[in-house]
Design brief:
Layout (H helix, E strand, L loop, with lengths): L2 H11 L5 E5 L4 H9 L2 E6 L4 H33 L1
Parallel strand pairs: 1-2
Length: 82
Amino acid sequence: LKGLEVLKKIKRQTPDIYMIFLCWPEDVETVIQSLKYGAFDYLVKSENDVQNIELVLSKINRVQELLQKNNAIRFNRFQTNN
């Protein structure tokens, strides 16, 4: 399967997963399509792969922290209202 097909299948089964495309330089349309179908980020392979992956992983951690904080606030509001 091609990368976009794999992305679509995985996102259908597990929509909350963070998918990152790591590919050789591709055309802009592939980047747009991967993000359209739910990729968290798109990285072009280079000599900086490790640093780029670490940066994206830190972004994912930050998103997860914000989601947890938001869920805690919602839960507290729900508890207060009931």
